[in-house]
């Protein structure tokens, strides 16, 4: 995978560069952890030093698929979906790369950490939401789905738990491409 933008470089992230790893939740087929990524992702090219500069310590999400004793084809298909689609479209949660827990051999996706999912957002803001804001949220979700479909893929497991909100730029992204796949492939 090639990128001309430093913040879109996909990389192998040594597990030793991750700190404060904490269990967050369990999804349908994965466990989700939060962590701090020491040095963080690449941010920009330093023309004087002639090297990529890093952002600094960043909060990230680690996603480990359950019941995968050894990496299998479906795990790599999810990784491929995340890496290909998320680094092309800002409307899909960015995946920075992969890591491996040396204590158990589990591979994990390293992903951008957003603030909350749509379910929690609606619970906290239900009485404050204007119709204009509701329509805007719907528009952003549709736009993200459009980009996934533009890649000839279908999400296959869209629900409020994997539509995520960023307070930083007041935007919505789609995550959890675990069932995402080619539009012409059955979902069995």
TrEMBL record:
SUPFAM superfamilies the UniProt entry points to: Protein kinase-like (PK-like)
GO biological process terms, semicolon-separated: signal transduction
The entry's keywords: Kinase, Transferase
Any one annotated GO CC term: cytoplasm
Residues annotated as domain Protein kinase: 18-188
A GO molecular function held by the record: protein kinase activity
Coiled-coil residues: none
Matches recorded under InterPro entries: Kinase-like_dom_sf, Prot_kinase_dom, Ser-Thr/Tyr_kinase_cat_dom, Ser_Thr_protein_kinase
Name listed for the protein in its UniProt record: Kinase-like protein
């Amino acid at each position: 995978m090639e990128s001309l933008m430093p913040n879109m470089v996909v990389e192998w992230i040594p597990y030793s560069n991750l700190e404060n790893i904490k269990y967050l939740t369990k999804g349908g087929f994965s466990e989700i952890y939060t962590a701090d990524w020491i040095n963080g992702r690449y941010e920009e090219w330093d023309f004087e030093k002639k090297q990529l500069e890093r952002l600094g310590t960043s909060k990230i999400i680690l996603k480990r698929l359950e019941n995968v004793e050894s990496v299998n084809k479906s795990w790599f298909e999810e990784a491929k979906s995340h890496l290909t689609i998320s680094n092309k479209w800002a409307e899909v949660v960015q995946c920075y790369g992969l890591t491996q827990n040396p204590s158990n051999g589990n591979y994990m996706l390293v992903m951008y950490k957003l603030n909350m999912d749509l379910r929690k957002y609606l619970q906290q803001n239900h009485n404050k939401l204007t119709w204009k804001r509701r329509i805007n949220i719907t528009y952003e979700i549709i736009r993200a789905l459009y980009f996934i479909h533009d890649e000839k893929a279908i999400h296959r497991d869209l629900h409020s738990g994997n539509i995520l909100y960023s307070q930083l730029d007041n935007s919505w992204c789609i995550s959890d491409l675990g069932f995402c796949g080619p539009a012409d492939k059955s979902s069995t």
